Amino acid sequence: MSKKKGFAEQVASTQIWKSIFRHGPPTNARNRAAVVAGNVFLHLHPIKLKKSGVQLGYTWCMGGLSFFVFLSLAVTGVLLMFYYRPTAEYAFNDIIALKEHVPLGIMRELHRWGAHAMVITVWLHMFRVFMTGSYKPPREFNWGVGVILLVLTLLLSFTGYLLPWDQLAIWAIAVGSNMAKATPFLGHGGPGAVLAKIGDFIMVSDRNDVRFQLLGGRFVGEPALLRFYILHCVFIPLVVGVLIAVHFWRVRKDGGISAPL
Amino acid sequence: MRELINKLSDPIFSFPGAMLLYLALLRYYRIFGSKKFAKIALVVILGLVAYFFADPNFFLIITTPDNIPISILFVLVSFFTWLTFHKAAENDKRIEQGLCPIEGTPENREKVWTWPNLVYTELFTIIAGTTFLIVWAILFKAPLEEPANPTWAPNPAKAPWYFLGLQEMLVYFDPWMAGVILPGLIVVGLLAIPFMDTNPKGNGYYTFQERKVAISFFLFGWLVLWLYLILIGTFLRGPNWVFFGPFEYWDLHKVVAENNVNLSEYFWIKGLGVSMPKNILLREIIGIIVTALYFVVGLPVVTKLWGKAFLKSMGQIRYYIFMFLVFSMVSLPIKMFLRWLFQLKYIIAMPEFELNL
User: Is pLDDT of A2 > 80?
Assistant: First the structure.
């Protein structure tokens, strides 16, 4: 006589459950290996890893948190896109509508504070990786990927800063993009730009320099809003996604989380 | 008392103060990293926070929604800086005794199952992170100001907080340096770190003793330059980018005398008592020579005094790239001190070519 099965066991023995999870509960060695290797998300991990590598005191979990915040930004960002139109006519009013007509709306807050949080976690991740010397061979390349990801994180946050289309937004971007004006030889206010002319023809002006390319105009206007919107919602997230894949892949291929040699 | 704190937080005093604190931290990192120090520091900091928050002007700036992340960042950085030195001090002591670092003990080298050891930690941090973000989102509304108006600039117009270190550099450098060259060098320098640091020690564990030079330079850039400048740029720069102490009201009409003088004016007008030469190169010749000397003479002198061992162990290419990056980084504090001591504006001033240094 077998004992009566509990509810959890009954669920776990249904055909539906078994079609999703093709192994038993992860309570023995075989199943613990199977659960990590057989799950597309969990298989980012190795099946086993050094004890020092799972200690919060060692890793601070800042890389993991950065990835988590990035994912939550992707989710809240998509939800925000339902309500937002990137034109000078609608952008600000859409944010107002989001604030006033969406009950219990904290998506914009989650997205904005999440963006700040990601900058912080990425910086702290770099801080930890430096302090444990984890950029040293064989991880030099992955450190470089990380530096690029850090720059892209700042650019993601910076391009998103413009989208509410309020005073805070356009003037912060004006201050930031004015730096591009001063790029040597490529910005019309930068060193050497006055030298780049043929006769009366000025080659670098405010109508064709790097700031113009960035903003799609001579000041922060509607073309800049559209450019920043596309960079923020499509282009940079795609690049970041690819680089995160490379970053994680190389963490595994370079020997996992660093530990004494 | 508040007057005094307002005065002392002016970069003229607080930057040298930050540098001294940093040197003390490196020198006495074992004390800094002790649990006793952490407890005392916590009490002192909480006391200071209470004192600072009681001031309405400080409260106004610190609770601006977009400034909250900076406060969070500084709490976290303080904690993690302590933690790294705590762990480094522990390991350095072990290494002195001939033991391996804690991360390398047989117990810690042992392999454990990812499930449940790692996945549960991850689950916990995800839940904690989600809770934290939701609480933050409920407590603080995302800021929204007046609709965009390209014809009316707010004063001060500030970049997002993570770029305020760069904006603060604009006080000492022109945009082409503060906004383009130096940030570019920061990224290049970060990318180059693994290729410049040939020290095989300290890979995979916390230590200070075994990586003194690398850690000292990195933390100088990260803590004393990058984070300090963000702090100043966010909390202590008001309208017209004028300095305001933490307890000062951001008065739009506060006037600060700006009588900075270029090196060329010092040389020709004040020094020789003649008018400035018409020829631009001749006019700026002293500045050009000084800048050239900084690298051409500075590099060999520094190499002779401190760098010989590094030159040998790193090889010429690594060493000179490293030194170029260090000299570029140090040019910022040098420019700051020159400004404060001599009201020096530009070392080379060629507004004709937008080339001011």
Answer: no
**Nearest-angstrom CA–CA distance, A94 and A48:** 49
What span, in angstroms and rounded, lies between the C-alpha atoms of A170 and A161? 8
Same domain for A114 and A242, yes or no, is yes
Q: Are residue A29 and residue A91 in the same domain, yes or no? A: no
Cα(B93)–Cα(B99) distance, integer angstroms:
9
pLDDT digits (tens, 9 = 90+) for B138-171: 999 899 999 999 889 998 899 999 999 999 999 9
Query: Across chain B, what does the average pLDDT equal?
Result: 92
Chain B 118-157, residues with CB within 8 Å of chain A CB atoms: 118-119, 121-122, 125-126, 129-130, 133-134, 136-138, 140-150, 152-154, 157
Contact: B145, A26; criterion CB under 8 Å: no
B191:A144 CB<8 A: yes
Q: How far apart are CA B115 and CA A45, in angstroms?
A: 10
Q: How many residues does chain A have?
A: 261
- Cβ(B102)–Cβ(A38) under 8 Å? no
Tell me, letter by letter, the H, E, C secondary structure of B290-351. HHHHHHHCHHHHHHHHHHHHHHHHHCHHHHHHHHHHHHHHHHHHHHHHHHHHHCECCCCEEH
- Is residue A205 scored above 80 in pLDDT? yes
Length of chain B: 357
Print the domain residue range for A5: 1-48
Name every residue whose Cβ is closer than 8 Å to that of residue A249 and which is 6 or more positions away in sequence: none
What average pLDDT does the structure give for chain A? 92
* Cβ-defined contact of B114 to A47 (cutoff 8 Å): yes
Secondary structure in 3-state letters for B228-284: HHHHHHHHCECHHHCECCCCCCCCCCCCCCCCCECHHHHHHHHHHCCCCCCCHHHHC
Compute the average pLDDT of residues B328-344.
94
Could you read off the pLDDT of A84-139 as tens digits, one per residue?
A: 999 999 999 999 999 888 877 899 999 999 999 999 999 999 999 999 999 999 99
Judge contact between B76 and A124, C-beta under 8 A.
Answer: yes
Gap between the Cα atoms of B45 and B1, Å rounded: 17
| Chain B residues with CB-CB distance to A124 below 8 A | 76-77, 80
**CB nearest B153 (choices: A112, A171, A260):** A171
Percentage of residues of chain B with pLDDT beyond 90: 73
Q: Chain A: nearest CA to B2, how far in angstroms?
A: 30
Residue A87 covered by a domain: yes
**B200: which DSSP letter?**
-
Query: Does the pLDDT of residue B357 top 90, yes or no?
Result: no
**Cβ proximity of B326 and A168 under 8 Å:** no
Q: Say if CB B287 and CB B263 are below 8 A apart.
A: yes
Q: Name the residue among A229, A218, A234, A116 with its Cα closest to residue A174.
A: A218
According to the model, what pLDDT value does residue A3 have?
67
Is ipTM strictly over 0.90? yes
Inter-residue contact A168 to B148 (CB < 8 Å): no
**A66 in the same domain as A141:** yes
* Nearest CB to A58; choose among B103, B136, B153: B103
Q: What is the CATH number of the domain that holds A117?
A: 1.20.810.10
Cβ distance of A46 and B114 shorter than 8 Å: yes
For A201, phi then psi, to 5°, come to -85, 115
- The answer to whether position A88 is within a domain reads yes
Of the partner residues B137, B175, B176, the one whose CB lies closest to the CB of residue A113: B137
